[in-house]
Amino acid sequence: EEVNPDDTVKVRLLGHGSSGKVYKVQHKRTNRLYALKIIQDKHEAAVCKQILTEMDILRRAQNPYVVQCFGASEKGGEISFVLEYMDGGSLADVIEAKKTLSERYLAEVAKKALKGLDYLHRNRIVHRDIKPSNILLGRNQEVKIADFGVSTILASTLAPCNTFVGTCAYMSPERFDPDSHGGNYNGYTADIWSLGLSLLECAIGRFPFLLPGEKADWPTLMFAICYNPPPSPPENASPEFKDFVQQCLQKDPSQRPRASTLLTHPFITKFEAPPSGVKAQTHSQLQSGGRFWGNFTKAFNAMFS
Ligand code: ADP
Ligand code: MG
């Protein structure tokens, strides 16, 4: 369905981003909840028109692992988007509140984010802005990728480190220097780097290129991303998680696996259904499975209530 930003009323402010504000809003006629993202930078009329046209194409991107866009409008150079409302906030909020996430939870997040990325990549869309604040959560274990359209469109009109895109911290080395690695630039696996870095951040509770409490200016950080070895997973991580992160964080973009390949990685599959060979689940196994998800949901909801 189509939802015009003008047909909604603000409920409350959800967050400030690099590009503007995000509000929780309610549709006047249906009472349904949405998120309204307002890009405050004033854009020239021609740029707005191009963005809205491309937005129309991107609105057709529909997948359970991608935050949907229901409508957009422009007024005096200010662009608004009506987005699917995700009541669990972002992975960035979770990191802030809880510091680190368990591998079981991370594998669940990784699997769903990879499904979203795989969908975008199959449709030849490169996200370009994967980071914890663009991985959104719902209270029924939904995990969805956000902001894919905005970043791809505006990237062509604005410099990569411009305030709109916000942070370059999760950008892969070859995006700073496309001629590195023999010009092996591959936009798709640039997203894989960013996802690996975001997951590693969730595992260790801090941005992986910086030591605890360390602050760095842009040139220093960019230098570290390009010329330091990639950050390593923690010593006590499982071999599967270590391998998963190491595969994502290879500096040569052509060496990084695609999203579809990573979906079969042991880190993702080891928490899935019981190993093959196990026949029908017994009643008690089913119950303990239910208990696991019950607790999972309870803990999850507790974080956001
Ligand atoms: P950034 O991703 O650069 O931090 P955004 O403007 O995209 O900034 O988002 C700001 C905050 O608003 C996010 O961190 C998130 O908590 C919240 N948010 C964004 N989109 C949604 C949405 N669709 N549903 C719920 N909350 C959202
Ligand atoms: Mg965002």
From TrEMBL:
Superkingdom: Eukaryota
Family of this protein: Belongs to the protein kinase superfamily. STE Ser/Thr protein kinase family. MAP kinase kinase subfamily.
Enzyme Commission (EC) number: 2.7.12.2
Residues the record lists as binding ATP: K37
GO molecular function: ATP binding; MAP kinase kinase activity; protein serine/threonine kinase activity
Catalytic reaction equation(s): L-tyrosyl-[protein] + ATP = O-phospho-L-tyrosyl-[protein] + ADP + H(+); L-threonyl-[protein] + ATP = O-phospho-L-threonyl-[protein] + ADP + H(+); L-seryl-[protein] + ATP = O-phospho-L-seryl-[protein] + ADP + H(+)
Domain Protein kinase per the UniProt entry, residue ranges: 8-268
Keyword field: ATP-binding, Kinase, Nucleotide-binding, Phosphoprotein, Serine/threonine-protein kinase, Transferase
Keyword Cell cycle: no
Protein name listed in UniProt: mitogen-activated protein kinase kinase
GO biological process: response to other organism; response to stress
Lineage: Eukaryota, Viridiplantae, Streptophyta, Embryophyta, Tracheophyta
